[in-house]
Design a protein that fits this description.
About 50% of the residues lie in helices and about 15% in strands. With about 250 residues, it is α/β, with parallel strands linked by helices. It has a single domain, classed as Rossmann fold. The longest helix is centred in the middle third of the chain and has 29 residues. The chain is globular, with a radius of gyration of 17 Å. The chain binds NADP nicotinamide-adenine-dinucleotide phosphate.
Length: about 250
């Protein structure tokens, strides 16, 4: 079992959903948690449910200053960084032919470039320590096209998974590991916050009863922090969906 006592953990997108459940789960397990996102009030509400020492940083991960703030405030407070969870992400629903260049670029800014650039900065700290863990929140959609009308999202999560694979190879022997977490449908604000939310709403309703809760996903991640494989399914549902669809 991974010992989280006193570990310093940054979680992006901690103001709701999986990130919020992870912040509370890490905190309950003894870690010192840095909660980062743009909505200050939501961050404070989540932080109030974190029993351990914690810090909230209002930051946009697509903004270089936001990424600097997250790392600087962490170092000022605790002087080290053990785990970075690149969880902040958005979806987009719509046929490829209706997806604009701006939508593609926005998805890749948040789902790929922000984690890549934050990881690059975090590694400067972790490599000096000779230890660390990078956790990227990918998706079942990072392994296959799991639905219609999500080409841009699926492309962004395949890219994040590809980055995770390449990074893990480059970090071999450094003491720093990489995990790529692949959840499936999870009941969070994700669907209402996604581009194309109105068109998506009836689809979401159909699958509501089948969805994992963010707490189940967070527990599944916390239970597998020691995993020696890169791809981690947080619950049985994405693992089964992958087994069924992987040859399609
Ligand atoms: N829900 C699912 O079915 C599902 C399935 C597979 C994978 N995932 C992945 O899991 C991760 C978490 O999603 P979720 O379901 O928990 O969604 P969520 O409830 O909508 O949470 C997304 C989080 O990302 C933050 N965020 C968005 N843009 C940001 C930015 N520019 N800067 C900083 N923070 C930003 C949001 O906070 P603010 O708005 O306060 O900034 C929020 O805390 C995402 O990467 C998503 O792709 C979700």
């Amino acid at each position: 079992m991974f010992d989280l006592e006193g570990k310093i953990v940054i979680i992006t997108g901690a103001s709701s959903g999986i990130g919020a459940a992870l912040a509370q789960g890490f905190s309950r397990a003894g870690a010192r948690v840095v909660l980062a996102a743009r909505r200050k009030q939501k961050l404070e509400m989540v932080a109030a449910e974190c029993p351990g020492d914690h810090l909230s940083v209002e930051a946009d991960v697509t903004d270089p200053q936001g990424r600097r703030d997250i790392l600087q405030k962490t170092l000022e407070r605790w002087g080290r960084l053990d785990i970075l969870v690149n969880n902040a992400g958005i979806g987009a629903y719509g046929h490829f032919l209706d997806t604009t260049e701006a939508e593609w670029r926005r998805l890749f800014e948040i789902n790929l470039f922000a984690p890549v650039l934050l990881t690059g900065e975090a590694l400067k700290i972790m490599l000096n320590q000779g230890a660390g863990l990078i956790i990227n929140l990918a998706s079942l959609g990072g392994l296959l096209a799991h639905a219609d009308k999500v080409a841009a999202y699926v492309a962004s999560k395949h890219a994040l998974l590809g980055f995770s694979r390449g990074l893990a190879r480059d970090l071999a022997g450094t003491g720093i590991r990489v995990l790529a977490v692949c959840p499936h449908l999870t009941a969070t604000e994700f669907f209402s916050a996604s581009g194309g939310a109105e068109e998506l709403a009836p689809e979401v309703k159909k699958y509501q009863g089948f969805m994992d809760s963010p707490e189940e996903v967070a527990r599944g991640i916390l239970d597998q922090l020691d995993a020696s494989r890169l791809v981690v399914f947080p619950t049985d549902k994405p693992a089964r969906a992958y087994a069924k669809q992987k040859d399609l």
